[in-house]
Write a structure and sequence with these properties.
The complex is a heterotetramer, with 2 copies of chain A (about 350 residues) and 2 copies of chain B (about 325 residues). Chain A is of the alpha/beta class. Chain A has 12 helices and 12 strands. In chain A, the strands form 2 sheets. In chain A, strands 2-1-3-4-6-5-10 form a 7-stranded mixed beta sheet, sandwiched between helices. A 5-stranded mixed beta sheet of chain A has the order 7-9-8-11-12, with helices on both faces. Chain B has one domain: Rossmann fold. Classes of the chains: A alpha/beta (about 350), B alpha/beta (about 325). The complex binds thiamine diphosphate (2 copies) and magnesium ion (2 copies). One magnesium ion binds near residues 141, 143 and 171 of chain C.
């Protein structure tokens, strides 16, 4: 479809998500939004604002604090032909209802021998905004380990709207992880993906984007870290290291073509991951590139992210744990020195 | 089906028993290679249920679900074939006996205790969205009532005024833990107060009483909101096939399986002037013959093709593993 | 402390209010850089609680916990310092305002709704193991009662006969969702029946009535088993600082914060012949001065050393990440 | 301590675990065992048999089906100085109570600034025995991703007893994953770790074991796959490939010394993992070896395990998904050909 480029609107990411949802709900009356504070309040960050007014309290349902019940509810609704978007306010809370996510939503397509699909979106917010260990996780590595779930995490306004649309249209279940540190950022805060058309469009799930081309080092990252990586890359460029920044956008599936093509050129890969580094995205990405390009294809691999530490409360500690532009720049410099 | 004739009722009870016995042969022959839970001794409840469930009602069940599937009208052949891990099974052999799905008939099961209730909530909400009076049945064991999912589901169903009928098969045991050691209340029906819904306990060995109680609950659910029926029964076999079942008093167990078998009770009741014992024999033989034939036929079926093992992880066709497995 | 004099009571109420107001200044000054939940308007319940909780009792609380910490006798300085993310905080600045732990005083909090109840169950069981009549207090919001953890905890506490006192601060809201839209029952106290335990609703703005109700619950819990107190109140501020709070009727909110402030009500009651208004002024000033001094002192403290950020993941000293981070 | 070698006893792994628990409970009255069917029945596989009789119903507690409650209960008990061992019957059920595991048990030591430790053992059974997608998972990759948990999975009778003892003694929380396919195997079924002394002993957590020395290829594996790997290695030896089999035993922490020393010699690494391959153990292990030995240290890396598929019900399908001796042998041969 043709997307009319209009004068850029300075909406924030929450508004972009809400707009994506609204357009899909207009197009398909089977789409529902269910969760805590999604209706009257329109979400604690506003990412479902306006939907109650547009679609009424049956399609936009405020729930009690009963994640287990409403996550399982999505299973029954999906079997009955609906397309529920359920919101787990913060991804940290998934531990109370993961059972329905990985044993039912994720496995019913397979357990039914392909007879029952699960067009469910699990919409949730990750990332740190100063609220410590139980409200700052990203956890995409956890979902990605479990079979049957698509897992995505957008980094900018354009993708946030378009990937939400694609998630709603997907017949596979999708875990859609917003970043709390991004949701209130406006289009004008972004150097990439800043222009959000008013029309409906989708950004296909499973494709990465090269946000900044470069020739010396490939950074593969996603979500809240993309803008930090781009900022760091700009500084590094001044110091003679030309960094290519890939926004993975999708964790399951990974876009191996884009990553391998880039690493094939730069021969160097740095994974930047706000999630816990161990047993997660970085190991998978590095191993997968080796499986595809062979061991001789790279001169450098490295990873930078949360070193397996619960996110601490104090700002002084938090800054030592969560990657930011400064720490990414340092990682780039280490990579440069190591090559 | 509310006015099911006694002959249909009795035949169905026997058929259910024979069906479960057919499943037992699968364990012995290793055609069923995992665990298996049967509901032998609990047939009266499933028969009563079958008399109230409409084609457009949904039913979600648990690890002990075969009889509920029959009550819901799942065709017996794909049902037994799934339990026997056959390609012809209702899930192509991918699901197995605890994971049965029939989308058209709004039927599903789960192997996780308590997890079926939220799914039923979804079906009930779907009926509301459609403006339909179709209700969602959830049949669960007594053990599941102590899980958080029960509570969250009951509260939400009540506050939303949904047509949910929860039938608790209280067989007095959750594996080795007796009901009395697990429940704060003497009955589960009395917990309904906490959700402002009706709750009733009934003798689940008595098909007529159970059918009446379920009938009342369904009538309430079709118009007013959720209801709970607690049907008392007793599990005749171990929790699963292979369970040594040493935790139950063996004397009591023998006594109950001998004197409180719902089939024996029904036959005794019917023989007493309601149905001709010759007819009862015929019904038994006909049910047995149906299951024998079914079993013989299913045994001839093939296991699913190993080459298909990676299919269906994503219904979109997305390949499961993005690495290159060695 | 059951016979707390009215002057102590009043001073403590004011002190709690001033403490929360001190926390608010931390948000404005960005000393507190995450979200912050205060209990302004809910002081009477915490004061009532403080009159029944023994040093050897445990208390588990939630995201809205500062006043419960004060009621439990947590020293104010490390408490405020933790909220202000200081190295001198009770958790060294690692926990922050929602994650407060004091092992000796059997006190902890969690940021996950409903998750404090099972922890309280553990403390209650520990008392039983020790043969002690120390009880476990769990203070929760009305929203948490609809979560599975509440149900599982209540049932287990009752079936095990544990000394658990659940105090529900029913402030009528869970963020933007009103109590009435979330609860199947008109009161939460009536749900106690489902666990065969006593349950009582009380006006949580009335410190005497609340203290009496908690007293009854505690007496029951020390000897017989769990009890529930539902204390009605109203949250004066947004759910967290920064919450625009547009979901509540602004007229009703003004009316209630103006006419139903527990401090104002207490002062009016006391001025009516119980305590000299001059004394009340003095108590207010003394409480304010104490908090002002505390705040000024805490603000001088340092943030934790960034070099320590990877400490304590394992108390054994095991290093957190087995990879070599770049 | 000295371990008296007595005539080998032909006990099964469940008995070894129960014996480990019994000895620790005798030594420390603060140790408790809590879970479904752990008391009267002594566990569905018998791995807590005899404890009720020895220690009574207060220390060995049968619970309702309320995992959330009794997992959180362990938190309160640990804060009160007890050392609870809680049993989540099958690891597949962890989704109903993961919240208490990763947000409380795992993080309280950190969130309290080191002031509160959590000596909790989460005892659970993983692995397949024909019970399909919701009863066959291993999920160690999931726990390992989350900070603050030690994660172990023994492969033989000797380790099962000794590692359970060490888990109970550990002040860090430990996820102890038994394998359903091993629990009823007797000592005589094993060629390694078959002899179980009657006395108390512990096997330190965090150390791997070389179960079969070899020079051509390092297989790193654990739990139920170890005996399959050894069997495959014996066959491979006949075909000229000398495989070293490492039983990792501990997933967190990984014993990098043992793995790197071996790979340093064989220059080839094959990870065999019954868990889902993606975003898990294999990627972490391969990446970690590269980080330590450099990219030139290996001529071959590969991984073999569950290819991200829910475990199917039918035996014909299950055998195509879950690694066994035959499939491991094929992976060894592919590795041999690739080197
Ligand atoms: C969440 C969860 N915990 C534990 C189990 C293991 N389990 C399977 S069935 C069962 C007992 C269920 O008892 P009840 O609900 O009374 O059903 P019954 O078996 O008696 O029909 C248990 C504990 C499970 N499947 N899921
Ligand atoms: C399991 C879980 N779900 C959602 C949240 C987000 N949340 C934090 S506080 C809150 C509302 C709690 O309401 P209530 O229990 O009444 O306490 P109050 O804030 O009114 O004191 C919610 C939904 C959470 N922290 N944990
Ligand atoms: Mg039962
Ligand atoms: Mg509230």
């Amino acid at each position: 479809m043709t997307i009319t480029e209009i004068a850029p609107r300075n909406i924030n990411i929450s508004q972009a998500v809400a707009e994506g949802l609204r357009l899909e709900m207009e197009a398909d009356e089977k789409v529902l939004v269910i969760g805590e504070d999604v209706a009257t309040q329109g979400g604690v960050f506003g990412s479902t604002r306006g939907l109650l007014k547009a679609f009424g309290p049956q399609r936009v349902l405020d729930t009690p604090i009963s994640e287990m019940a409403f996550t399982g509810m999505a299973v029954g609704l999906a079997m009955d032909g609906y397309r529920p978007v359920i919101e787990i306010m913060f991804v940290d809370f998934i531990g109370v209802c993961l059972e329905q996510v990985y044993n039912a939503i994720a496995k019913i397509p397979y357990m039914s021998g392909g007879r029952v699909d699960m067009p469910v979106v699990i919409k949730t917010a990750g990332g740190n905004i100063g609220s410590a260990a139980q409200h700052s996780q990203t956890l995409w590595g956890l979902f990605a380990h479990l079979p049957g779930l698509r897992v995505v995490a957008p980094s900018n306004p354009y993708d946030s709207k378009g990937m939400m649309a694609a998630a709603v249209r997907s017949n596979d279940p999708v875990v859609f992880i917003e970043h709390k540190g991004l949701l209130l950022k406006r289009a004008s805060d972004f150097t990439f993906g800043a222009s959000v058309p008013k029309e409906a469009y989708d950004v296909p799930l499973g494709s990465a984007a090269i946000v900044r081309p470069g020739s010396d080092l490939t950074i593969a990252t996603l979500s809240g870290s993309v803008r930090h990586a781009v900022a760091a890359a700009e500084v590094a460029a001044g110091q003679g290291i030309d960094v290519e920044v890939i926004d993975l956008r999708s964790i399951v599936p990974l876009d191996w073509n884009t990553v391998c093509e880039s690493v094939g050129r730069t021969r160097s890969l740095l994974v930047v991951d706000e999630d816990y580094l161990g047993f997660g995205l970085s190991g998978e990405l590095i191993t997968g590139v080796i499986e595809r390009l062979g061991m001789g294809a790279m001169d450098y691999v490295g990873r930078h992210g949360n070193p397996g530490v619960p996110v601490p409360a104090a700002l002084s500690l938090e800054q030592a744990i969560v990657p930011d532009a400064e720490s990414i720049l340092a990682a780039i410099m280490r990579a440069g020195a190591a090559r | 089906m509310v006015n099911a004739s006694w002959s249909d009722r009795y035949r169905l009870m026997v058929l259910m028993r024979r069906f479960e016995e057919a499943c037992l042969t699968g364990v012995a022959s290793k055609a069923v290679h995992g665990e298996l839970h049967t509901a032998i001794g609990q047939e009266a409840i499933a028969v009563a249920l079958s008399e109230h469930i409409r084609a457009d009602d949904s039913l979600t069940s648990t690890h002990r679900s075969h009889l509920h599937a029959i009550a819901k009208g799942i065709p017996l052949r794909p049902l037994l074939a799934e339990i026997f891990e056959k390609k012809t099974g209702m899930c192509g052999g991918f699901g197995g006996h605890m994971h049965l799905f029939d989308r058209e008939r709004r039927f599903s099961t789960t192997g996780i205790v308590g997890a079926s209730l939220p799914v039923a909530l979804g079906h009930a909400y779907a009926s509301k969205l459609r403006g339909s009076d179709a209700v969602a049945f959830a049949v669960v064991g007594d053990g599941s009532v102590n899980s958080g999912g029960f509570h969250e589901t009951m509260n939400m169903a009540s506050v939303l005024g949904l047509g949910l009928v929860v039938i608790i098969e209280n067989n007095e045991w959750a594996i080795s833990v007796p009901f009395s050691a697990a429940s704060a209340t003497a009955t589960l029906a009395e917990r309904a107060v906490a959700y402002a819904v009706p709750g009733e306990r009934v003798d689940g060995l008595d098909v007529q009483a159970t059918s009446d109680a379920i009938g009342r609950a369904v009538a309430h659910a079709r118009t007013d909101g959720p209801a709970i029926v607690e049907a008392m029964c007793y599990r005749f076999r171990g929790h699963y096939e292979g369970d040594l079942d040493l935790y139950r008093d063996q004397g009591e167990k023998s006594l109950r399986t001998e004197t409180k078998d719902p089939l024996v009770l029904a036959r005794a009741f019917l023989s007493d002037g309601i149905l001709d014992p010759v007819l009862l024999d015929e019904l038994e033989q006909s049910a047995s013959a149906e299951i024998d034939e079914l079993l013989a036929s299913v045994l001839l079926d093939e296991q699913p093709d190993p080459a298909s093992a990676r299919d269906h992880v994503f219904t979109s066709g997305l390949a499961p593993f993005e690495g290159i497995p060695s």
